[in-house]
């Protein structure tokens, strides 16, 4: 079956613009995570969904960042008024069941560059 | 607050050598620990998942151990090959949170 997919693979935008990043998890996976990875660093947790609800959004850096998963499958990470410091690779992962107990499967990421 | 550290940051070895990558974590109350591989410009691939009740996991030439009391995990790679060249990341899921905290990784280069 298909793995986790993310679109777009690359996004270049200007400072102050709004962007949406999409994640399609593996079919049937109830847990979905968003991470952000800067160059030379490990992924940094942003938000975790169990089903449709955000079970933990403690990693979102500020209120410019928002994520939704309205039907418990596809998720969208939304960034308002982008800043140059938002440039990073945004990774999505999904797991079959209870988060932490199951292997997380990662997508290839979206490389965001804010000019 | 959980912190995960990986040593060394980079490692270069000749083909065929056995090697050990180290991961340490500050909060021993973890749910599990997972080792990942990341190739340049790619996402992460899960290698091994060790539950908190387990001491080690093996897959092919890879063996991961977990010692919660000392806050350490090691990834052992036997008979390394050039195809093993990648960045290896460990991540700990702290009990009660279910989110992974990642280390900064070890960049491995296996020379032919």
Please give the count of helices of chain B: 0
- The percent range for strand residues of chain A is over 45%
**Structural class estimated from helices and strands of chain B:** mainly beta
- Care to count the β-strands of chain A? 11
What is the overall silhouette of chain A?
globular
Low-confidence stretches of chain B: none
The portion of residues assigned to helices of chain B is: under 10%
Low-confidence spans of chain A: none
Structure overview:
The complex is a heterodimer of chains A (115) and B (112). Chain A is mainly beta and 115 residues long. In chain A, strands 2, 4, 5, 6, 9, 10 and 11 form a 7-stranded mixed β-sheet that branches. In chain A, a hairpin with a 6-residue loop joins strand 4 and strand 5. The model of chain A has no long low-confidence stretch (mean pLDDT 92). In chain B, strands 2, 4, 5, 9, 10 and 11 form a 6-stranded mixed β-sheet that branches. At the A-B interface, strand 5 and strand 10 of A face strand 4, strand 5, strand 9 and strand 10 of B.
Highlighted features:
heterodimer; A: 115 residues; mainly beta; 0% helix; B: 112 residues; 5-stranded antiparallel beta sheet; globular
Secondary structure topology:
The complex is a heterodimer of chains A (115) and B (112).
Chain A: E1 5-7, E2 10-13, E3 19-24, E4 31-37, E5 44-50, E6 53-56, E7 65-68, E8 75-79, E9 88-95, E10 105-106, E11 110-114
Parallel strand pairs in A: 2-11
Antiparallel strand pairs in A: 1-3, 3-8, 4-5, 4-9, 5-6, 7-8, 9-10, 9-11
Chain B: E1 4-7, E2 10-14, E3 19-25, E4 30-38, E5 44-51, E6 56-59, E7 62-67, E8 72-77, E9 86-94, E10 100-102, E11 106-111
Parallel strand pairs in B: 2-11
Antiparallel strand pairs in B: 1-3, 3-8, 4-5, 4-9, 6-7, 7-8, 9-10, 9-11
Q: What's a concise summary of this model?
A:
With 115 residues, chain A is mostly beta strands.
């Amino acid at each position: 079956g298909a793995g986790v997919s993310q679109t777009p693979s690359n996004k270049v935008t200007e400072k102050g613009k709004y962007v949406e990043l999409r994640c399609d998890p593996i079919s049937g996976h109830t847990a979905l995570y968003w991470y952000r990875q800067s160059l030379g660093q490990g992924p940094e947790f942003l938000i975790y969904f169990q089903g449709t609800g955000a079970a933990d959004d403690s990693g979102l850096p500020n209120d410019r960042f928002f994520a939704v998963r309205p039907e418990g499958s596809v998720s969208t990470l939304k960034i308002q008024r982008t800043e140059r410091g938002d440039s990073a690779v945004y990774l999505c992962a999904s797991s079959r069941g209870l988060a932490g107990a199951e292997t997380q499967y990662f997508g290839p990421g979206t490389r965001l560059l804010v000019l | 607050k959980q912190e995960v550290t990986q040593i060394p940051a980079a490692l270069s070895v000749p083909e065929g050598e056995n090697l050990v990558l180290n991961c340490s974590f500050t909060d021993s109350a973890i749910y599990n620990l997972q080792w990942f591989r990341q190739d340049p410009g790619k996402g992460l691939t899960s290698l091994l998942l060790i539950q908190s009740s387990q001491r080690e996991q093996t897959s092919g030439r890879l063996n991961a151990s977990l010692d919660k009391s000392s806050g350490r995990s090691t990834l052992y790679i036997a008979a390394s090959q050039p195809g093993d060249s990648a960045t290896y990341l460990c991540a700990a899921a702290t009990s009660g949170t279910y989110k992974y905290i990642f280390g900064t990784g070890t960049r491995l280069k296996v020379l032919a």
